[in-house]
Amino acid sequence: MNAPLVLHHFFDRAVALYGDKTAMICSGRTVTYRELGERVSRLANGLRGLGVRKGDRVAYLAPNTLEMLEGFYGVFEVGGVMVPLNTRLKPDDYVFILNHSETKVLFVDQELYGLIAPVKNKLETVEEIIVHHKTEAAIDETAYDEWLAAQSSAPVPRPMIDENDICSLLYTSGTTGNPKGVMLTHRNNYLHALVTMHHLRVSDRDTYLHVLPMFHVNGWGAPFYYTANGATQIGLRKVDPKVIFDLVKEHQVTVMHMAPTVLNMLLQYYEQYQPDVPEGVRVVIAGSAPPPAFVARVEEKLGWEFIQVYGMTESSPLSTISLIRPQLDGLPVEQKQRIKQKPAIR
Description:
- The protein is α/β, with parallel strands linked by helices and 346 residues long.
- The protein has two domains: 27-161, Rossmann fold, CATH 3.40.50; 188-340, 3-Layer(aba) Sandwich (Rossmann fold), CATH 3.40.50.980.
- The chain is 36% helix and 21% strand.
- It is built from twelve helices and 15 strands.
- The protein has helices at residues 8-18, 33-49, 66-77, 91-101, 144-149, 186-199, 217-220, 222-228, 241-251, 260-273, 292-302, 333-340, and strands spanning 22-26, 29-32, 57-61, 81-84, 103-109, 128-132, 142-143, 166-172, 180-185, 207-209, 232-234, 255-258, 282-286, 305-311, 318-322.
- Helix 11 (292-302) links the parallel strand 13 and strand 14.
- Helix 9 crosses helix 10 (260-273).
- The longest helix is centred in the first third of the chain and has 17 residues, at 33-49.
- The radius of gyration is 20 Å and the shape is globular.
- It starts with 7 loop residues before the first helix and ends in a 6-residue tail after the last helix.
- The mean pLDDT is 95.
């Protein structure tokens, strides 16, 4: 019998095997995988109540929060297509993406609602806007917390989902013209998760800090393979070196993904303030190849493991990785650092 490779199976596994384990810590809130499962069911029931059906687009404009993480699985439960929006765009960019994707429901964090409000009347297909962390009475939209609490926590009847069904629609900023929508299937993301969790050595003992935005190619797939393995995940609303170092120490973070610019910010902060941080953290980097001296600073000063990867949105995204294989253990440190700076399979 062939089992379809669909992403909500990852979430089912996490809830079944790690129900009492901490799933997410974000903004002072801690939820277990069982509690996250209940929230996802409420979200899915709410989406069904709004008329979201298989193939409908649901967009999220949010930082790396609990609401963003549960959004992936709530949307998948009803067979919807997740449209994560880059939080760094201009209002007119959202008009194009939301109209082009034919988004039906938009979830937006209150801090980012100002990017949507000026162009709300230009949205052609959005039927409902729901605001995360809504405290401002002047915002005339549905408040997420109250809306979610009003929904049933009973599991929703899942539609028939094929592994080749589209599950995420990701808009890339092309060099010319409007953003391009990349369609990824359940199978794309599922197989990518299996490969990536192997190469990054993901396990249920990991604590992952969401530094890389979840909107960026689904956070390089992190919400899938860390959830599948029952890892504890830490939310991060904004990139701030002090906050990151504090979270790494407080929660004994074992792995992070980030851009080279963010890692450089952390190095500069460390060199200035010398915070006390645990060693052995795996830091996964993509982008331009750094000089060997940069790798040396990460591994010698911070005591962290530097892992360089490469990929594209169209490849789900990670394709290659630089690691020191056992047969290369005897190489000089400088040569190992030169190998690590190049994102090629080794």
